[in-house]
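Protein in question filed below.

…
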Amino acid sequence: MEQLRSYFEETIDSIFYDIIDYARSGDMSSWLREKGESDLADKVDSIDENLGDSEYFSRLSALMTGKETASDSFEKPDFSKCFQVEEARLEESSGGMKV
């Protein structure tokens, strides 16, 4: 565990993409669970897969080094709470149905 944490503290460029691939594949969280770090594994799993490599690594690094802050949010937003549908119509056209 300490060796894994040291990779984030030293920021070793030669294994940057290996670490990202290891985390995104789920192998890192599986290993963490084997080591009894289930809470940390859950947090690693909750990092948005669609982030760019640098942002993904930054969030992963914050988790692994214990430097995450209250402003770090790893939950995906619920977009259904962002929109309200007031009126919907269904129209049929030659291309199919439109809402």
Residues 24 and 49 are 7 Å apart (CA to CA).
